[in-house]
Amino acid sequence: MFTVLRFLHIIAGIVWGGGAIMMNLVFGPAIGATGDAGKQFAGHLMTKTAFSKIMLGSGLTTVLAGTYLYGINSSWFSSGWMMSGQGVGFGIGAVAGIIALVFGFMIGNTNSALAALGAQIQGKPTDAQMAQMGALRKRQAFVTTGNTIFIIISIVLMASARFFG
To answer: In which domain, by residue range, is 113 found?
Structure first.
């Protein structure tokens, strides 16, 4: 069971972390820089492919399998191992991963709100629509940055915690 969970945790983590980092640091800026073509690409990626489902599934699998693995290693959150260097490293990495997952949900909600607003706009946007668009883009920048930072923290700690003593 431990081996299967570890395999799921690692593979799902690679898919989730790699997908998020590529989207947040490469595809997202390219989408923003290419105007209408970028919007078409983003719309297709989010609505016509399994990208969102893959990201959700891999994020949830990573966190759930990781929680179970941490539970096994810590005698269900009751052993002194949790205060060891390794236990602390994995624990902080786990918290960072959970925070990244929350930011991921926020990204999805923000993208949905942007898509809904875009569908409402016919022709030139009103001042109110422009203000709403600006607020959503500001929120999107915040949650994307948070997601990227916490995924990187989680990856670094998960990859190195076993060397913390």
So the answer is: 2-163
